[in-house]
Amino acid sequence: MDTTVINKNTTTMKTISLKSWLTDIIVMAKRELLKVKHSPEKLFDVTVMPIIMVIVFSQLFGGAIMGNVKAYLPLVVPGILIQTLVMASGAAGTQLREDLDKGATDRFNSLPISRIAPLAGTLISDIIRYIIAAVFALGTGAALGWRASAGFGWLLVAIGRLAIVTTWALSWLFALVGVLAKGAATVTTISSFLTMFLAFLSNAYIPVTSLPKWLKVIAENNPVSHLITAFKEVAYNGNFGHEAWLVLLISLLIVLILAPVTVLTYSKKN
Amino acid sequence: MKKEIIMALAISTTNLVKNFDGKNAVNGISLDVHQGEIFGILGPNGAGKTTFLRMLATLTKVTSGSASIFGNDLTKDGAKVRNFIGLTGQYASVDEELTGMENMIIFGQLNGLSKKEAKKRGLELLKQFSLTEAKDKSISAFSGGMRRRLDLAVSLITKPPLIFLDEPTTGLDPRTRGEMWKTIRELVKGGSTIVLTTQYLDEADQLADRIAIIDHGSVIAQGTPSELKNILGETTFELSLIKSSQIKQAKEMIEQKFNIEVIVLPEFATLSIKVTDTKIMTQILLLLETEHIAINEFETRKPTLDEVFLELTGK
Asked: Which residues touch B116 (CB under 8 Å, ≥6 apart)?
């Protein structure tokens, strides 16, 4: 009966289905990628940064920490990869906050789309950023002589099934920060602090055995350390062992807890 | 019969309330918006205009009361309601990094159009809004006025029958503002219903068929611009005489005969009379004629919407 009225105006009534739900998420992800296309500098943190980090860290500290650069590479290359990924995962929060502040989120919420689509779109487009980060960090490492001794297949497993999955799970944490924080600048500050803390108080750059005891306890229990250890185990020894499963389990828990909380906060925000 | 009346309404709200932290930002608004009209919501900053609009656009939950959009319950059928509405917020929310067409395609697809349909409709809209130069260029290269226009164009991608405009011209220069007004008028010709909030009285006066004045979350007056002007109920009738020597005589005569107050503005030999009944004006003119008091010129002046607004909001 409503149609008699609406027909006049030829409204497109969108049918909500699983397909439309997926399309919405893909369109939202595409939006993020188009932004990158127009401002390629947005990829700085996953391209130039890992290149510089791998070169500088290996050349600067290689000799001091392990005696020579070549011996330091197996330790530092996965470390920098994971650090880059963790830092890249922080960007999701900033993006969400900007959309909320600019009124874009309001606009999206007035559309006949599932309310999770803007959030999911951002987080999914991030996966492409993670892949780029992995290529640049490991590519630079390889150019300097780093090798994944278990072979290319295991390396892909380490990246795809471990590093990116874990980072993606972590990005939910930063998405929550983004939804809760007051402004985009605050999100960046909080994310930088968290990622710095997570990356440096770990085994990313140093063997933890060199640390004072209290710091060693922290570094060993840092989830990032677990991830790096697991990554090395898979990439160097071809063993997707209990450390790797533990990391995946933690990631799953993070998503199971944070995803509903973030989505709820995000929609309650109004 | 009753059902038909409800259907003819684009919006109907009953006692709509929005409470934020114990304070009612919207404090029981009941109003009807007819199809095909421009309905203006006028009020000072913080009056609850935007909150009211956000509730109608399903962006914020209704605390109590009810509302229907084209006969669909706002709280129960939010998902359906979103098919009928287009929203343009206070700030341009299109992606500045993206081109005009990319924005069109994204919003078209999110509204359920195929990429091809979205492209076609996007092209039409870019033409209609004179935005063709922004088709393949990032929006950030263009003026604020153009961004606003694109923002509006994007919300029209599915020809929504109901369009919400939240302060559509705030921050625009007078020329761009005029262009925006023109665009809004054209939309209504196409059959859309428009609800716009504004803090500019002249905007409401120029555009709106009907206006609700909102203050402290409540509607304090509602009607057509001329009805609202009639709230003050007075027309000012001003007469200037040729001979300023006769002014005192004229004042006394009119006051006596019609029992109304006459204010003398001596520097122009002018009498200013507030009249509620326009017939009195003719009688005053006749009286002066019979008494041989020559009139230089006269004019009548309706109160401006500004005066009504100030009177009602007590500011």
From this structure: none
